[in-house]
Design goal:
Largest sheet: 10 strands, mixed
Structural class: alpha/beta
CATH class of the largest domain: Alpha Beta
Shape: globular
Distance between the termini: 29 Å
Strand order of the largest sheet: 1-2-3-4-7-8-9-10-11-12
Radius of gyration: 21 Å
Helix content: 25-40%
Number of strands: 12
Number of domains: 2
Strand content: 15-25%
CATH superfamily of the largest domain: Aldolase class I
CATH topology of the largest domain: TIM Barrel
CATH architecture of the largest domain: Alpha-Beta Barrel
Bound molecules: S-adenosyl-L-homocysteine
Length: about 350
Amino acid sequence: MKPLLRSLVPEQIAQIPELKGLPTFRAAQLVNWVFEQGVFQWQQMKNLPQQLRDTMSEVYDLGALEVETRLVSEDGTRKFLFKLRDGQTIESVIIPMGDHPTFCISSQVGCAMACSFCATARGGLVRHLEPGEIVEQILMLRRDLIDDPYPHFDDRQPNVVYMGMGEPLDNWDNVEQSLSIIMHNEGLNISRRRIQISTSGPASGLQQLIKSNPGVGLTLSLGGTTDESRKRTMPVPGRTGVQEAVDLSAAYARNSRLKATLAWVLIAGQTDSPEQAKQLAALASRGAFKVNLIPMNRLDYGKLEPSNLENILAFQNVLTDKGIPAFIRASGGQDIAAACGQLRRRRQAKEPSQKK
Ligand code: SAH
């Protein structure tokens, strides 16, 4: 398979051998087509010499994703199933809540974390995504907003959250490269403040993140306050101790000067006791964190249930009483299985409200 041109940062594109001997503005034109215009066919790059387009197309691929399915939820959330060049599939989501649209993107095909409450866990990890495959999800979603805009957003910059399929810190080199492209002013030019990496917190990955310090927001998904309870819901991430993951996340928050987020899924009878709320408040107590409480979204298998409203509010109260900012987060797109924890590799048999 050819390498993806969009796996390269603009400076690397300027250095590709195919541009040798050409005037320097050719690199700038190419970079503009690749990222700002976001085109998917060489023939669209009209101001480039035909010969350059021909040699480029022999060496690089411009597109890696094909829309297999596009679903639109009653609440406006849009979910995309993309087919990759090797036939594997991933999902990405546009969530239209808040002041800006949020793009939820995947970092791996499948996931190795095996969390009890998450559908992506089924089927395990297939492979890492390449930087270009990560970047292209954003371009595809951006294009969808141009073709079919939400009336209330104009052309606002999206928020980008690495909260789709996969564990981003297990694919750190490619995720780091995708961040460089996304934040680059000649790349997608998205501000670091609009970007969140969500992780289950492998110690080695958090250490790499701290070292690289890309300045984006960090969310640590907890699922348990003690090593033992965390291993029950998040068996693989549970191999890093809770305290160690929290300490490393706090260190990153200090370096990036942004509060980090602790994400807590509320599962009836498992993660919603007042005792756990107290322990979570203690973990979050050093000023480095806010807490997002996510009532569990239902899966179409298994027995886990979301907490009831009373328990959710009581859990939140324990945190806020202790001075911890705690927000209840509703996930969009439940009717099309686009909510947190509902993404998976294969389209399921029956899909409502299909569009396009
Ligand atoms: N592997 C990364 C990113 C993917 S999960 C991580 O663990 O953070 C993204 C978020 O979705 C996590 O905070 C996770 O706790 C949440 N999540 C997963 N399944 C869920 C479900 N069924 N209901 C609600 N939130 C869920």
